[in-house]
Write a structure and sequence with these properties.
Elements lengths: L7 E5 L5 H10 L5 E5 L11 H16 L5 E4 L2 H14 L5 E3 L1 H11 L4 E6 L1 H6 L1 H9 L4 E6 L1 H9 L5 H15 L7 E4 L8 H7 L5 E4 L1 H12 L12 E5 L3 H12 L8 E3 L3
Parallel strand pairs: 1-2, 1-3, 2-9, 3-4, 5-6, 5-7, 7-8, 9-10
């Protein structure tokens, strides 16, 4: 990669962040990336905020050691709990999370300013999406609900079928069966976009599903535009995980939308 700009680092607790990487590569096809999935310690969503901060700092250190020029926190839980600590630890490195991008997209999509947010327990309990949305639309009504089983199903590759739809009904029906239901649903976890077709089938047709991945990619593109890699050659991705290369490749292929090879995944110790 001689003569090329340094890569962009992306991390998540597992493979969910590959939905963000997919949009990043679509927006910036010539860029090089280093992706780290902390698969040995997922999920982050059930951990304490202090633990998520510690894990996130370790992930960031591993990517910084590989000379990245921008860090994308492709995990809603880590964005909610650790963004401040990451920016304090790496003050000269651009650090971009997914929550502000998701909030921006939600406010743009909701005509009624009535927004539902589904995410992990940690993200919902921390209130990060609620605060981000209210910063943009102070009068917005927000219905937030943790959906931890969605993470497990996505990690297993269970993205459609009667079981997925039954769980979706259990989580979503209470949010959308009221007299004045939300008109936008934020997928506040990077695992959730692969479930979007199943969610679409159980939601009222008027509800807009908001995925922050594309908005995050646009924010990163603005941040790194000055140092963007030149040329038409497609950039490379270096794959890192903390456990289970074969599983990372198998399940990650679903999230990325293209085949991954287990022998291309480097297992590292944080």
């Amino acid at each position: 990669m001689s003569g090329r700009a340094p890569p962009i680092g992306v991390f998540d607790s597992g493979v969910g962040g590959l939905t963000v990487l997919r949009e990043l590569r679509r927006a910036m096809p010539a860029e090089d990336f280093v992706y780290l999935g902390d698969t040995a310690r997922l999920p982050y969503g059930t951990k304490s905020a202090e633990t998520v901060v510690r894990y996130s700092l370790q992930c960031a250190a591993a990517l910084v050691a590989r000379r990245i020029r921008c860090l994308v926190v492709a995990c809603n839980t880590a964005s909610a709990s650790a963004l401040g600590a990451l920016r304090a630890r790496h003050p000269t490195l651009p650090v971009i999370g997914v929550i502000d991008a998701g909030a921006e997209a939600a406010v743009a999509a909701s005509r009624k300013r009535c927004i539902a947010v589904i995410a992990t327990e940690g993200t919902i309990a921390g209130g990060a999406y609620q605060r981000a949305i209210h910063r943009l639309a102070a009068s917005a009504r927000i219905e937030a609900r943790p959906c931890p089983l969605f993470v497990a199903m996505a990690e297993e590759g269970w993205t459609q079928g009667p079981i997925v739809e039954a769980v979706a009904h259990r989580y979503l029906d209470p949010l959308f069966s009221c007299d004045d239901p939300p008109d936008a649903l934020v997928l506040g976890c990077t695992h959730f976009p692969v479930l979007a077709p199943a969610l679409r089938r159980v939601l009222p047709p008027s509800v807009c599903i908001v995925d922050s991945a594309a908005t995050t990619a646009a924010a990163v593109q603005r941040q790194v535009a000055a140092g963007a890699a030149p040329g038409a050659v497609r950039g490379a991705v270096r794959w890192l995980a903390t456990d289970g290369a074969e599983r990372f490749a198998r399940v990650g292929s679903i999230f990325l939308g293209e085949a991954l090879r287990a022998d291309a995944v480097e297992i590292i110790d944080l």
